[in-house]
UniProtKB/TrEMBL annotation:
Keywords: ATP-binding, Helicase, Hydrolase, Isomerase, Nucleotide-binding. InterPro entries: ATP-dep_DNA_Helicase, ERCC3_RAD25_C, Helicase/UvrB_N, Helicase_ATP-bd, Helicase_C-like, P-loop_NTPase, XPB_DRD. This is DNA 3'-5' helicase. CDD domains: DEXHc_RE, SF2_C_XPB. The keyword Nucleus does not apply. Residues 450-474 have a biased composition (Basic and acidic residues). Residues 321-469 form the Helicase C-terminal domain. The lineage of its organism: Archaea, Methanobacteriati, Methanobacteriota, Stenosarchaea group, Methanomicrobia. One of its GO terms (molecular function) is DNA binding. Residues 87-231 form the Helicase ATP-binding domain. Residues 441-474 are annotated as: Disordered.
């Protein structure tokens, strides 16, 4: 008789049979496989007609979640695309990633998946803000206490929300306690370390949720192995004006001052000269990483990298940007505004120049919560931030976004656009991009705008509108 069991994130297979994805382990004198292949192992043994004893899953005793959801009075009707997404997921054996825009109801979709699977569920999220948000909505949906793993708490219950960091720490012990594991903002999962959360889990049902599936480093292909790949997708442009607020994207071009332009060209030419001299070509983040590594041992590479950074710093922090930002803020005196920058230096400059509260990675949690609550209430009309509000912030009142500086990351772009797209009666959202002419920012903006394009357009089509998206140069 073949016996399979769970041990520290792996499946032990006792008996004279080798199953797929397993290797012989001398210490346990058995074949061993990562726990994530539990479902595949079961299917293989059944299809092969091999008798086996299964003691892998040790699920946390769980109430009838489907009945609890029905009885809570918080049952919400799924939108058509949410229902379609869950059907696609179900047809893929309840495995896979749903790609839905920010503000389209990914949390509700996840809650309905939990009720439908009716099995203990672990929800993994990247931030403490999202942990609290999920916990609150799950408690309302099921009228029961929800477990919490992260932020100093360790309470394991039939339905538990965990940060990625905490789930990673406890992966070996929790891997067989849940029948369903949900990864919110699943694009984080392929990162080194985090992927072991999925590898050490035997959960037969796996659901990934994200607005931005692709990663610049290409590691999103790992999601095929870890979760089940992309099974459903809706783009921002498909939901704008219906389930999301209608929006306009406006590209605002500014010129550096004469002094800034001269200094920019001087600095950037050092970088370009080095690339020409060495034959290096920057086609991807991986190419740039090679330069960073080379700078550790090559003084000329270091000099080129520092010059490139200094040039970008000039473009990001131009006096002309501050003046253009002043105009936009004046134009939207009665609106609720998020201002996004790439680095903290510009955050603090904007905060000090316009007396706008700032949120960075150094802002204490209580202070951040206080700022956002005052923003929701209208006591603050604007907030300036670097990258910390790209995910997990639900502020329907925000209707204006301003990207004062940013990278070419399509993921960050979609996340920032999503901050202002949550539906509210009469709301029309506008996302401004302030771009320094004759700098690398023009190419950066061109790359990231592809994230919301439904088809490729020629450069002279900036002012055209398509499927709820319009762009205009100002």
């Amino acid at each position: 008789m073949i016996k399979i069991s769970f041990k520290q994130g792996t499946i032990l297979i006792k008996g004279n049979v080798r199953v797929p994805n397993s290797v012989w382990d001398e210490r346990s004198e058995s074949f061993r496989a990562p726990a994530m292949y539990y479902k595949d192992i079961i299917n293989y043994l059944k299809d092969s007609g091999i008798d086996f004893e299964d003691s892998v899953l040790d699920l946390i005793p769980c109430p009838d979640l489907a009945a609890a959801y029905e009885a809570s009075g918080k049952k919400l009707k799924l939108r058509d695309y949410q229902a379609e997404a869950l059907i696609s997921w179900g047809e893929n054996e309840k495995r896979g990633v749903l790609v839905l825009p920010t503000g389209s109801g990914k949390t509700l979709t996840g809650i309905r998946a939990i009720a439908g699977c009716n099995t203990p569920a672990l929800v993994v999220v990247p931030t403490l803000d999202l942990l609290e948000q999920w916990k609150k909505e799950l408690e309302e949906a099921f009228s029961m206490e929800i477990g919490k793993l992260g932020g100093g708490d360790k309470k394991i219950l039939p339905v538990t929300v965990s940060t990625y960091d905490s789930a990673y720490i406890h992966a070996e012990t929790l891997g067989n306690r849940y029948g369903l594991i949900i990864f919110d903002e699943v694009h984080h999962l392929p990162a080194t370390g985090y992927r072991s959360i999925a590898e050490f889990s035997a959960s037969p049902c796996r659901l990934g949720l994200t607005a931005t599936y692709e990663r610049e480093d290409g590691l999103h292909t790992e999601l095929n192995r870890l979760v089940g790949g992309k099974v459903y997708e809706k783009k921002v442009s498909e939901l704008a004006g219906g389930h999301l607020a209608p929006y306009t994207i406006k590209r605002v071009s500014i010129a550096l001052t004469d002094e800034e332009q001269k200094e920019y060209e001087k600095k950037y030419s050092v970088f370009l000269d080095y690339l020409r001299k060495t034959g290096m070509i920057m086609r991807s983040p991986q190419d740039f990483q090679k330069l960073v590594m080379k700078s550790g041992r090559d003084p000329e590479a270091r000099k080129a990298l520092l010059a490139r950074n200094a040039a970008r710093d000039l473009a990001f922090n131009s006096d002309s940007k501050i003046e253009k930002l002043r105009e936009i803020l004046e134009q939207h005196r009665d609106d609720r505004i998020f201002i996004f920058t790439e680095h903290n230096r510009l955050v603090h400059r904007i905060s000090n120049s316009f007396f706008i509260p700032a949120i960075t990675y150094r802002t204490p949690s209580k202070e951040r919560s206080s700022i956002l609550e005052k923003f929701r209430e209208g006591r603050y009309r604007a907030v300036v931030t670097s990258k910390v509000l790209d995910e997990g912030i639900d502020v329907p009142e925000a209707n204006i976004g301003i990207i004062a500086s940013g990278t070419g990351s399509k993921r960050a772009y979609v996340q920032r656009l999503g901050r202002i797209l949550r539906k509210k009666e009469g709301k029309e959202a506008v996302l401004y991009e302030i771009i320094a002419e004759e700098t690398t920012e023009t190419g950066t903006a061109k790359r990231r705008k592809e994230a919301v394009s439904t088809r490729k357009k020629p450069d002279n089509a900036e002012a055209k509108s398509q499927e709820g998206v319009s762009r205009a140069d100002i």
